[in-house]
Amino acid sequence: MVDQEHGYFRPLCPRHYEVMFVSPSASDLSAVPDTWIRRSRKLSTGAIEAHDCECLVDGCPQHYSSGFGYSTIRRNDDHWNVTGSASIEITRSPTQVICGEHQCLMFLGAFHPKTKVESFRCPQKNCQQTVDIPAGGPHAYWLGKGFFSAH
Questions:
Q1: What is the pTM of this model?
Q2: Tell me, what DSSP letter sits at residue 83?
């Protein structure tokens, strides 16, 4: 469970570097689209993460959750045109950062415009894990310290 103490958990949008909005449906799994739940079960290694943050910049499809990481959510118009029923398309970001200690996906906590470095933090309040990567760098899964250590 993500600890959301005010001021600590403030994910930034990886496109706009603006603080993302914590969705009011974060604690209500029934408000999460069925398509997302089905895909989350297939793609996520842990339990379904209903906590969702979204970018408030007009038209930005960026979302973040500690269980799913950064992703974009868009209406799937091809599905609508063929079947006449609604569907969404979820695409995980090709750049994800994983906390080595908690095995969850870290959030973008700061962007340093002078050095063009993105700083990711673990969503667990007491975890000190951070990973700095160059903005626009290679698409990869970045692993925080301790990821391969024996438990």
A1: 0.71
A2: H
